[in-house]
Design brief:
CATH topology: Nitrilase/N-carbamoyl-D-aminoacid amidohydrolase
Low-confidence stretches: none
Shape: globular
Number of domains: 1
CATH architecture: 4-Layer Sandwich
Helix content: 10-25%
Distance between the termini: 60 Å
Oligomer: single chain
CATH superfamily: Carbon-nitrogen hydrolase
Radius of gyration: 19 Å
Mean pLDDT: 96
Number of helices: 7
Number of strands: 13
CATH class: Alpha Beta
Length: about 325
């Protein structure tokens, strides 16, 4: 058995430092309850850019510029010590942490943002770094395209863990890339919610015969900063839930064993029998005995993509 914790809390929107500090405190709290694997939502640091779903396409240019500038300044630079409090909390508590964040590119232009999820191991190191392959619809006005570099399943003390972000879970080949690496705990940080989305999570659990940890974004108008631009027009209802969360824990059978946690903040702390992800494959193993490699094969390019490749000048 393993104890996992799904964190459905709001960040300090557009404030990287405070959000990282909050995440570290939450890790300490749930680790004290015995949690060994702790999962935060999509783009938790410094918050999912929910405004993109309300701004007019091609319009609201000034508001878009203002918000993007603030998001850029508060995005995480993984070459820096931005995540040090979280990494230290993971190490001191000997837990694995999966956290969504807005990442600022540090190798190429240094100004592109990515929708990223990192897995931090119990030694406080980044064990996997995945950038969302395809930002969804208006998200492409905020984030660049990721690549296959982070399509990895890694060993942790609680089992073999992998992550896809939100609508990446609608990409059959991306799912299969994880299934074929023996995933036991499929982590889905997401902004999506509702019955249709939960049905997708249940399907993935049944298809992959793995545990699915769906970690949703719970956000209210009151969570936005007081100086949020054009707030009265974008979010006129003062007690509005911008997104309900709907976090859930789903067994390899497709059964929802905890949640959904809807329109409330909090944690799902649950004991799961990780071995079920192995024994459940007796009848169906889509990347094993139920596959047909003589008919279908998948090739995955895990190279980190870059527009520039420098070669040393010959003397």
């Amino acid at each position: 058995m393993a104890k996992i914790a799904i964190i459905q809390e709001a960040p300090y929107v557009l404030d990287k430092v405070k959000t990282v500090e909050k995440a570290a405190q939450v890790i300490d709290t749930v680790a004290a309850q015995g949690a060994e694997l702790i999962v935060f939502p999509e783009a938790f640091i410094p918050g999912y850019p929910a405004w993109i779903w309300r701004l007019r396409p091609g319009g609201d240019w000034g508001v878009s510029e203002d918000l993007h500038t603030r998001l850029l300044k508060n995005a995480v630079d993984l070459s820096s010590d931005d995540l040090a409090p979280i990494m230290n909390a993971a190490k001191s508590n000997k837990v694995t942490v999966v956290c969504g964040l807005n990442e600022r590119d540090y190798k190429n232009s240094r100004t592109t943002l990515y929708n990223t999820v990192v897995t931090i191991d119990a030694q406080g190191n980044i064990a996997n770094h995945h950038r969302k392959l395809m930002p969804t619809n208006p998200e492409r006005m905020v984030w660049g395209f990721g690549d296959g570099h982070g399509l990895n399943v890694i060993d942790t003390p609680v089992g073999r863990v992998g992550s896809l972000i939100c609508w990446e879970s609608y990409m059959p080949l991306a799912r299969y890339a994880l299934y074929s690496q023996g995933i036991e705990i499929y982590i889905a940080p997401t902004y999506d919610s509702g019955d249709a989305w939960l049905g997708t999570m249940q399907h993935i659990a049944r298809e992959g015969k793995c545990w699915v940890l769906c970690c949703g974004v719970a956000l209210e108008r009151q969570d936005l900063p007081s100086d949020f631009p054009n707030i009265e027009q974008l979010y006129p209802v003062t007690d509005e839930w911008i997104n309900p969360g709907d976090s859930a824990v789903i067994a390899p059978s497709g059964e929802i064993v905890s949640g959904p946690l809807s329109k409330e903040k909090g944690y799902l702390v649950v004991d799961i029998d990780v071995e079920l992800s192995t024994t459940s494959k007796r009848a169906l193993d889509v990347a094993g005995h139920y596959s047909r490699p003589d008919v279908f094969t998948l090739e995955v390019n895990k190279a980190r993509q870059s527009p520039t490749h420098f070669k040393n000048e010959s003397k």
